[in-house]
Amino acid sequence: MLTNKRILYVGAGSMAEGMISGMRGSDSIQTEQIYVTNRTNSERLHELQKRYSIHGVPRDEVDWNSMDIIILAMKPKDIIASLIDLQDKVQEGQLVISVAAGIQNEQIEHYLPDSQPVVRIMPNTSSTIGESATAIATGTHISKDQFALIKELVQTFGEAFVIEEAQMDIFTGMAGSGPAYFYKLMEHFEETGVAAGFDRETAREIGTQTMLGAARMLVGTKEEPSALRKKVTSPNGTTAAGLEALQEAGAGEAMTKAILSAAARSNEISEELKKQQLTR
Question: What is the number of structural domains in the chain?
């Protein structure tokens, strides 16, 4: 379904680049189908065009009528101004996709023409290597064919998870912010290894392979995490001692708090945008 579809990224930041990078590795889409624009930074457009063989187009030169999919990839604080600018540019039937955290479909639909197809997605930074966990929450006017199209598009840079929009904040806390939790864990893993005498590169490789192997065990065996944990934990053994220390330090509680705090911030962003709507 993506064949010959023109995709325009409005916003040329790290999230847009991550998705573009992941798409480039897919057989479903060609780089010449991808366009990117931003407000003023022509150097950034040139950089992305050169790096990924896509089209970097200044905002005033975009052929809006020719685009099939418009991806809103700006920061949440900039989305209202961008939506107001888009009001007289989007065409009937064009699919509008938002990756802005905390911005609800209803809020986007408010600024666009009646019956405009709108969908929210929440990728994470692993989209860069085609391994994102990406949520899809559709708006009011999405057709069956458009839903199939957006799912195919999301799968060009990872796995798609279709959820209710009410679950988007918690998904953001889990998957949208999740890579940062993993990297923070790896920082501690690495620092502990260095303190114990390993060189930094070796400590990092040990941690990375350990985490990668554990993730592949979950994917490959389909077993419950708790079952795999029990298999590697001998009574009074080294793993049991480590797990006891994790529990005493509140590691599980800290992870839950991190997810819920990120989810709460996503909700706060949405409420802040609603207030801005009311003042316009």
Answer: 2
